[in-house]
Write the structure tokens for this entry.
Amino acid sequence: MIEILQTVIAFILALGILVTFHEFGHYWVAHKLGVKILRFSVGFGRPLWLRRYGADNTEFVLAVVPLGGFVKMLDEREGEVAANEVGRAFNRQSLAVRAAIVSAGPLANFLLAFIVYTLSYAAGVTGPRPILGAVDEHGLAHQAGLRQGDEIIAVNGAATAIWDNVLNRAVTAILDQHSLDLRVRTVDATERDVRLDFAGLSVDDLTRGEFFAKLGLQPLRPKIPPRLGKVLPGEAAAAAGLRADDLIVAVDGVAVDDWLTWVDRVRASPGRALAITVTRNGRDEVMRVTPHGSSDGGKLVGRIGAEVAPPPATAAVPTAIERYDLVSAAAHGADRTLEVALTTFKFLRQIVVGQASLDNLSGPLSIAQFAGESAKLGASRFLEFLGLVSVSLGVLNLLPIPLLDGGHLVYYLIESVTRRPVPDIIQFYGQQIGLVLLLSLMGLALYNDLMRIF
């Protein structure tokens, strides 16, 4: 219950910040350019809190449904406007002013991402060093020249202190279908260059958790004893008679010496009975457990409902901290914001042309889950999550879909060419089409969320 509450709080906090920043972009530019603001609302529906401020008596509202917000401006198309205020109506503004106001929302999201990435880099991001664990001798990584124990110290000339740096650049390479030039340090402290070709890999391999398997390598993993901690009642482990403190020593006669190997075996066996040898009170016992099938990113995997016992301190992997002074952090923050924006555009393009699966679309449930998980990992990770979602929100709002900011900008582009506004009837039908598209996308994203959970 506490974990669920933490997730809900993190989700509401993240969504509140994202929506407020986006709508404040519209509000601030409209206010500065002389347009009258009637209402600034975070959320939709019935107001939970309402106050009026300023010379225009603008309503500031927190509403019951937190999934969005809006800025309502004076507009002759939405009601009667007093003669002395016609000049402050949105629809009477020049094309440049209207475009600036509409663009300000997505731009505010990019600004928020820049700020949080800068703060994250200044505070320092802790993560595991990019050291390779097992490398399959038949895999792409081995063929490229990577070996167990190698540490990736640079990608395309840029230093990589932690795995995040490597993976961020790998995503871009996969979307562009090209290779990465790696600088690696071997276990004997010598350095060499390796080119890793990503041709044939897709973004689906990354989102489905198969990226390292496709390359034929594993990051260095902690050696955690396969000892059970909490066994959840009503799950497969409890039904098989497994108990807390049981030590797994073999599966189907094959020795198991660490927790992650045990997890891999369980995940690979949904619905298949496994013969488990456990050590309990100094004696070995053989039990049979059948992992339940569960969807994980669209892939069926096995689960038994058991947690790992707290590992010893010696099980940790080497970590590093990526931290910069404020000026360097700002430069890295700007680079990261641009990188995420371009990656998001490329990813959406691949979905549209069918090169990436629609299963990759995520909805509010996934965002809530990621918000909770990132918050548990600390402030820097939560800021990174906030930056990623803020950029995504900015990019999505720039898509040329009616009802979104990008749809309005398309209308303004047409108006700049034809020298007259797009007819109201066309805008009306465009809004209907946009509404259907958005509801369809939201329904698909929510369906994907539910499939990932259940």
Notes: The CA atoms of residues 133 and 221 lie 7 Å apart.
